[in-house]
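Quick note —
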Amino acid sequence: MRRPILMQILVLLALTACDSEGPASNGGPLVLGEGAGTLCLSAQPGTRVTIGLDIAKNQGDKLVTISDVSLINTQGLSLIEAVLVPVPTTPDEQGNIMLTGNWKSYPPPADRVPAEWNSRKAAKNASIDPSASWGFAFGLEVPAEGSIDGVLVDYADSSGDHFQARTTTRVLVKQKCS
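Predicted structure written out below.
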């Protein structure tokens, strides 16, 4: 059932609505997410998790190409991979557009995520057309409880100008979230 994911999205939206920091793009055209907040995901040590609630939007008029993806201030977690997933165009039964969502596995269960997951591509070396949006998801290895302050994306536009963008959601992975 998709209710846990929908609840996570609603909680994340509520958290981001309370914060005025907004998306961080360091002056470049690529924006990841729409506000700051904290997400806690319950998971056992020795597992993997999926985080997939952000949209990567190229707000510029030039193609951008991602050169690197890294974790910001990571404690106890490591990046498995980051992927771009086409944003679904068909709403679910409740009229919502479902992104990849958060899961206690990586990759997420194929029968529980939108079909667009099957068309994902590695974020590193991927290009995003002007005005295009993609879902941004990543897998984390969880050797112990930990956290990240976000994900940093290095990229360049087709003119060769280099930029960085970051997600603005802090992620906590704990055995039990309170």
